[in-house]
Amino acid sequence: MWTTVTHRFERVPLTAKKAVECEGCGKKLRRQRTFEQTINPWNKTADGEVKTYKHIYPELEAKAAAWKAEPEVCRDCEGGTDDTGHGFAGSL
Ligand SMILES: [Zn+2]
Fold it and tell me: Its domain of life (predicted)?
């Protein structure tokens, strides 16, 4: 039975994982990220319908797919956007 009592909004999480190579040095990286939406009266589709799992899940999957396609860099390479950052690497 439906009641008007406000519950905590139900969360719809999707945890995505990926294993990619660092763009900078080729090191293997594992990344994990959780995409989430809640089912609530304000989370609506373009048609004004309150979203359910059926709406939310494909959206989360699309976001996860986009994230998986993004290149990653390891921590060592992350700080090296500055041109001077790698200047000493070759002086062994
Ligand atoms: Zn790297």
Answer: Bacteria
* Å from CA of 83 to ligand 1 middle: 15
- Helices first, then strands: H and E counts in the chain: 2, 2
Q: How much distance in Å is there from the Cα of 14 to the middle of ligand 1?
A: 27
Cα of 17 vs centre of ligand 1, distance in Å, is: 19
Q: What is the pLDDT of residues 27-81, one digit of tens each?
A: 999 999 999 999 999 999 999 999 999 999 999 999 999 999 999 999 999 885 5
Q: What is the dihedral of CA 36, 33, 17, 40, to 10 degrees?
A: 0
The neighbour count for residue 35, using CB atoms within 10 Å, is 18
Ligand 1 centre distance from Cα of residue 19 (Å): 14
Give the E-state strand segments of 1-92 in sequence order.
10-21, 28-39
